[in-house]
Every structure is written in C-alpha cells, then in structure tokens.
Amino acid sequence: MPKKIGRSDRQSTGSRLYRPKKILPPHKRKSEDITKRSASAKKIKMTVEDQIREDLERHYRVIDFLLVFATIATLVKCVKCDGKVNFHSTKKEGLGFHIKVSCESCKQITNVPSSARINSGMYEVNYRFVFVMRILGLGLVGCDKFCDLMDLSSSFLSRPTYNNYMTKMCSTIREVANRFFSSATKEERAATAEEKKTEDADELSVSGDGTWKKRDYSSLFGVTSLIGYFTGKVVDILVKSSYCHECKIWEHKLNSAEYEEWHEAHVDTGNCQANHTGASGNMEVEAIKTMFQGSVNNGVRYRNYIGDGDSKAYSGLVNSKPR
C-alpha cells in the first residue's frame, strides 16, 4: 500500500502539486512576439503608423463654472488698475461659450473663448461632441438629452445649426476616409508586387464583407467593404440605401408635376440617398459589383475575389464582367 505523504513532506520534496508558481512582476515581463498574438493584435500593430499623435498639452474637462471662477476671482486682479475682476459666461453656442472677464473699477472687458474655433467659426468642442454622439448612434435629440441631464444646457444646438455641423463633418469624414483607402491601396500594391516579385502590381486580390443595420432581410441600409488580401486593410467601401428622407417627405406629391420637377433636380444633383432597389440581401452583391467596376478610377484592378461562402456574391460578380 502506498505510503501517504504529508503536506509538509510534499512541500519540502518539491512536489509539482505544491510547487509555487513563479509570476514575474509586470515591469520584468518580456513583450510577447507579435507572431504569437491574435489577428486583431496584428492588425493594430500594422496600423500604428497611421495613428495621429496625441497632443498632451490640449484636453477638455467638465467644470463647475461658478465654483471654479468664483475662486479664481479671489486670487487675481485687473492688470490695468488692480481692481476686482468678475467672470461670466456669454455667447453660448452648444457646449462652447465666451468667458467674459470684466473689471469692476476700470470697466475693461475681455472675452475668452472656451474652445478653439474651426471650419468657419465652429466650436471645436461642438464638432467633437456631434461626432462622438453620432459614433454612439445618437443625433440631435440625444445631444439635447445629454446636455439637459448633465445640466450643461436645456438644449444643444438648433436644427439648422446642427445640420450645418453634420454637413461639414460628412465632408471631412469622406475626405479622410478616401486618404486612408488610397494609402491602403498603395500598401496592397506594394505587398502584391513583393509577393509576385515584380516592380509594380496594379491587379489586386481582395475579399468582400457586408453588414446591415438590421439582422433580418428588411434592412434599409447596408455597408460593404473590400479588404486587401496581403495587408488585411480596407481598400474600398460602399454604402447601399433603399431610403431617402427627402423623397419620403415629398411622397404625398408623388403624381404631381411639382414632384417630377423636384425629383429630377434631386437626382441630378446627387442629393438622393437611395441607391438601391430590391431585396436588402442583394446590397452586398451590388456593392461589390460597383466597387469592382470602379476600381480603375483608383489606378488598380481588382482581379481576384475571395468570397466568404456566399455564392450569390461570386456569381453576381462573374456575370457582371467588370473591366
């Protein structure tokens, strides 16, 4: 019969069951090799050079205006006459405003903006706030509710002003996205040339992936992207929509001459957001076909398509016979 070994004996003999596990402190741990990390980690590593450097000297903070500036008023004096100064908030626009610094003695007034202004006088803090709220899926109503609950203001911006912010923002986002797509295409060309051992490569291999706003087959919006085979970066993207808000507003005048005149101008100017008819499941196929046919505008040709098992996308692409 095997002899029972006590706990103290096992610890003294170095039994594997009771051998303490050595855990190195964080500052002594070696960095894990990138090849052993996940696919997501590799992609993050590849895009480090595309990141914008953070300016640590600039940042935003939420403050209690009365508490902060009532205290500052007891610590500073007017540089002109040594008089007492007061602080007030004026000219509010969204989250931006002017800090009015006034002297009780000499009546000198200085206005200090609470945020830098960009894009023809827009407050940067408003621009950032609108962008972040849109990323979170919230519009003007969400902005108003946030400001109200945080006691920032009873409302954020008027509808026309908010729409102006959105118009500027969409234009900027489109420009930045095109720069990234152009950069990703150049990297994919270089990687393809290196793999094929040629000086240049204008025929690329890509894969496609689509996503919809809703999971069922009734979604009004779909987004499809093309991804470079060697770099794993998005080289092109296209949004398909079965809905246009302006068209919906004019729906009650559908058979009138006024509607026909408006609709012709609406479509000719490119303001109509609806660019898809039919089932939402076909959005991915149609988007891939459109991007393949327009690839020559980017100086390349998407030669090979790597599907994700959706035979409709592949057969639709073959039948379209892109250039």
How are the strands of the largest sheet arranged? 8-7-6-9
Helix content: 25-40%
In whole angstroms, how far apart are the ends? 82 Å
Please tell me what the overall shape is.
elongated
Question: Which percent band covers the strand fraction?
Answer: 15-25%
| CATH class category name of the domain at 182-242 and 277-320 | Alpha Beta
Please give the count of helices.
Answer: 10
Helix-strand string: HHHEEEEEHHHEEEHHHEH
Low-confidence stretches: 26-37
Structural class: alpha+beta
Mean pLDDT: 81
The CATH H-level homologous superfamily of the domain at 182-242 and 277-320: Ribonuclease H-like superfamily/Ribonuclease H
Number of strands: 9
Keywords for this entry:
3-stranded antiparallel β-sheet; 323 residues; Nucleotidyltransferase, domain 5; alpha+beta; single chain; 9 strands
Could you explain the architecture of this structure?
This protein is α+β, with helices and mostly antiparallel strands and 323 residues long. Among the domains are: 93 residues, no CATH class; 105 residues, Ribonuclease H-like superfamily/Ribonuclease H (Nucleotidyltransferase, domain 5), CATH 3.30.420. The strands form 3 sheets. The protein has a 4-stranded mixed sheet with strand order 8-7-6-9. It has a 3-stranded antiparallel sheet with strand order 1-2-3. Strands 4-5 form a two-stranded antiparallel sheet. Helix 9 packs parallel to helix 10. The chain is elongated. It starts with 6 loop residues before the first helix and ends with a helix. About 4% of the residues have low confidence. This is Mutator-like transposase domain-containing protein. InterPro entries: Mutator_transp_dom. It comes from Hermetia illucens (Black soldier fly).
